[in-house]
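We close this part of the discussion by returning to an individual protein. The encoding preserves chain order, so positions in sequence and tokens coincide. The sequence in question and its structure tokens are set out directly beneath this paragraph:

===
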Amino acid sequence: MQDLIENILYEFSYLTLSAMSFGYFMVLYFGVGTLFLLSCKSLESMKVLQKIESKALEKKQTNFEIAQSMQSIIIFGFSVIPIIYLIRKDFIVLLPNTWPIIFLGIVLLTIWNEVHFFIVHRLMHFNFFMKHVHFIHHKSRIPTIYSVYSFHWFEALLLSTVPLTILPFIPFSIVAVFIYPFVSILLNLAGHCNYRFGQGKGNYWVNFGTAHNEHHTKGRKNYGFALNFLDKLYSRRFR
């Protein structure tokens, strides 16, 4: 397995690796996204989940979200190039692919993504970026699973730098880096799927879907990804 990984990292062309990354994000978006939606509908029929907004969506919203997401996925595909370059130049150190190191890496990437996303998302809500960039994502007044990657190209570019902004400074297992987008899209889907547990009350992990839905529908000022600790910190410091 290790020989295969090293062969991919050091022998495959940048174009091939970009195509593989593009394919991976396509599977996450269309494959995992569809399975997630089907699971939500099944849990809704069992009365475990409830739909947040019952208003029917226009087909043009879905078409717009998919078109924008395809643009983002192309950018995500090319985002692997600087990472591979830095690995090949030994600016990024990789740890062994053992299960404890992989698990710890996924946890650290999840925490870093919270920080990275909060910074980018808060930036996007300043007037200039909201008017010229982030408005694309907020065209989805009622979020759907197809809106998870529905970004302006510049926002997609910023969001694609999560691994690039930490890997040169902290070593990770490459398997953890590979698995993390799967973890990330599950959280992203949970925030955009228009389903929630219960009545949208209680602990934040229960209320997560409601909170992000209201960020879209009501302009609620929560900028975090899946957790709310940075929103609480920010509100105490700047409001």
Observations:
- Residues 2-238 form one domain.
